[in-house]
Amino acid sequence: MIGSEPGATVKGTLENESNEVFTCAVTLAEIISKVGREGRDIEEAYALLLSDSQIINADEDLSKNAGVIHAQMKSKEKDFGLADAYVLASARKLKAKILTGDAHFKNVKEAVLINRNI
Question: Is position 118 within any domain?
Fold first, then answer.
């Protein structure tokens, strides 16, 4: 997404002060893992995430809801991940939208898809 059109969309969303931005703690772990595997600066990515969004912790209530969502979604999308279920549970808890390029969310009403190829 770095330097891409979807990346520009995300950047614009983050820079729009009228938007509240949230990141699920599970997503935080996924991003840090990806940054590390790509050999990029983990501390810089972590600081950026903390400065640009509010972190939603994966407590027992959110985990229960994510489990229910995961079971439901897996019956339709065989490779729907548990981390995706946490994102969706977080969005539903907050009554928020998910800004994503992930095709797993193409039929999810809370999702705003940013990749035209989905």
Answer: no
* pTM for this entry: 0.84
Which CATH number belongs to the domain containing residue 42 in this structure? 3.40.50.1010
Give the 3-state secondary structure of residue 98: strand
pLDDT at 18: 85
Distance CA 74, CA 3 (A): 32
Helix axes 82-94, 60-74, angle to 10 degrees: 120
DSSP assignment string, 50-95: HHHSEEE---HHHHHHHHHHHHHHHTT-TT--HHHHHHHHHHHHHT
**Number of domains the chain contains:** 1
Residue at 74: amino acid letter: K
| Residue 77 belongs to domain spanning | 5-113
